Every structure is written in structure tokens, then in C-alpha cells.
Amino acid sequence: MIAPSILSADFARLAEEAAAVGGADWLHVDVMDGHFVPNLTIGLPVVEALLRATDIPVDCHLMIDDPDRWAPGYADAGAHNVTVHVEAARDPVKIAKDLRAAGAKAGLSVKPGTPLEPYLELLDHYDTLLVMSVEPGFGGQEFIPEVLDKVRTAKRHELDVLVEIDGGINAETIVQAAEAGVDCFVAGSAVYGADDPARAVERLRALAAARKTGES
Ligand code: DX5
Ligand code: ZN
To answer: Which residue pairs, CB below 8 angstroms and at least 24 apart, start in 108-115?
Structure first.
């Protein structure tokens, strides 16, 4: 699965930018609050408008403090998957229950320096695991290959979660990530920085599919 990140799109033309990646599996939306990360993007009103403007399932990545309070609103609005950071969550089990009760998939994310082992049992409550492969906050950063160990750990424990990776994914790094077992690849600059974003999505998908463990 390929999830283009609109962080690298033109925020004045979000509906058109979503349409430009019509073949994408999910549309990745980075919500940043200027506290959990040193950057500020968009919040619920803009996500609601985007949800009205696209049929692509919306994947909300909440890089915010107090996700216990704010995350369910994104699920209520109709987001397909809502991911919170384990470093910010007070009661991650309750968050997952709230998200699922509102009809969304529940996602848990770990920053590059956050180990996965302490959270393996917690992931029983979640549908997706988002492994950050850059420090969250900005697009266009360099991929940190060491985080792939967490992908391998998740796969080794046969966790019943979709494993997503986010940060620095391009035509080169997607190959290593696919080999490690990643299921869903977020790509911002590699998609929206391309002349033809739809073609970039297809190219990334083909590269990942060719290298996915056991498929080639
Ligand atoms: C970074 C965001 C990413 C970002 C990825 O904090 O979570 O989703 O858009 O951008 P690229 O693909 O350019 O690294
Ligand atoms: Zn993201």
C-alpha cells in the first residue's frame, strides 16, 4: 500500500492534490501542533474539509500532545485510520477503544528513538503500527535504516497489525523497507515532488511489490 503524504502537497489546493494521487491506497495527513513536534500544520476543520473532497481513505497521523482528548474527533469525522504517538498518549488502550468505537482503525506510532518491545502487548488493541523513519515534524528528511529492526520485530512476533513506515521513503529506501516486511509506505516528497504524482505512486508500489518478503 502507498500512502502519499499531503505535507508535501500544495495546502491551498488540497482537493486537487488528493485527486492527483487517485490511485493511492490511503491519503496520509500529518497533523502537527507545534508542541509535540516543532512544526504546525492543520487540524480537524481542514481534515473535515478534505474528507468531503476525496474518496481516498484518509490516514491521520497525529503528532500532537494530548491525543487522548483530540484523536477521537478525527475518527468521528470519518478518518479511516487515526494514529497517535505512544510518547504522547496517557491511556493508549482507551484511545484505541475510542477510535474503534467511532468506526476508525486505531494506529500507534513510535519515534525513531522509541523502542518497540515495551509496547508489544499494547499493540493487541491496535490495527496499525506506524514506524517513524525520520524524526517527526518535517518532510524531506533522510531515511533512518536502523528503525527497520522494529519492523522485523513486529513481523517476528506476528503482531496482528498493519505495519506502516513514514519518513524518507523514496525509490531506493522503499526496497529495504519492503524487504523488512512493511505493508504500507508513506511518501511525501517522493510523490508530490515528482512531475507526475500518480505515476510516482505506481512506481513506488511496483518497487515495493517486487521486493516484499516472499514475493520475489
Ligand atoms: C514527518 C511526517 C511525514 C512526512 C514524510 O513528520 O510524518 O509523513 O510527510 O515526508 P517525506 O516522505 O518527504 O519524508
Ligand atoms: Zn506522517
So the answer is: 108/83, 108/84, 109/61, 109/83, 109/84, 109/85, 109/136, 109/166, 110/85, 110/86, 110/150, 111/85, 111/87, 111/135, 111/136, 112/144, 112/146, 112/147, 114/86, 114/87, 115/150
